[in-house]
Amino acid sequence: AQKITQTQPGMFVQEKEAVTLDCTYDTSDPSYGLFWYKQPSSGEMIFLIYQGSYDQQNATEGRYSLNFQKARKSANLVISASQLGDSAMYFCAMREVLGFQKLVFGTGTRLLVSP
Amino acid sequence: DSGVTQTPKHLITATGQRVTLRCSPRSGDLSVYWYQQSLDQGLQFLIQYYNGEERAKGNILERFSAQQFPDLHSELNLSSLELGDSALYFCASSVGGTAYQETQYFGPGTRLLVL
Fold it and tell me: Is residue B85 a contact partner of residue B112, using CB atoms and an 8 Å limit?
């Protein structure tokens, strides 16, 4: 079964608008971390934001915030005030205690920001 | 810049050959992880080393091997290369290796093309 599901293969947003990228996960481990990474066309993987399973508040990092709904097992990334440089692939990933140390990635969402 | 370095950036080789990919972790990080990103398999965890010792193994083929040296740099050896081994290979590092909360920081990747 898929551990991380990203149902949006592509998203389109206009500059300065907010966009939400969906991520749902599946785990029976009570302790886990959720991560979002950005992969521009140049290929590198850039860490954006982290949410822990026991965190009471949604994580925020500048224009990035994570809408964490534990009961629904979702961890959606919200990008506020989109910029042209936000055009990239975005990956949701999970790290479980029982899964040893590996990150398990979703299939990604390609975001295109237009002027 | 994540602080993780990988060499070479690009590698073109022929089927049946052997190559070595090199990774230097961020200063102070003890864990190194290797991931493979291909079009058909997505991002897959291969192997983790912590302070010189193998810690976790993922979907790593028997033709592939890795090691971490006393100075903490790591090498991934790929032998008897096949066309399907063409992929982007990432190295990531983290401070420790046992906490699910730890962020893994990725290097720029090595793009391998097997002809």
Answer: yes
Q: Would you state the pLDDT for residue A114? A: 97
- B2 in contact with chain A, both atoms CB, cutoff 8 A: yes
The phi, psi pair for A84, rounded to 5°, reads: -55, -35
pLDDT tens by residue, B57-87:
998 999 999 999 999 999 999 999 999 999 9
Q: Is B106 in Cβ contact with A45 (below 8 Å)? A: yes
Which residue has 């899964």 as its token pair? A99
Nearest-by-CA chain B residue for A29: B100
- CB-based contact A47 B35, cutoff 8 Å: no
3-class secondary-structure state, position B87: strand
Do the Cβ atoms of B81 and B17 come closer than 8 Å? yes
d(CA A25, CA A15): 29
Structure tokens of B81?
């290369």
Q: Which residues of A touch B111 (CB under 8 A)?
A: 43
Specify the amino acid at residue A90: Y
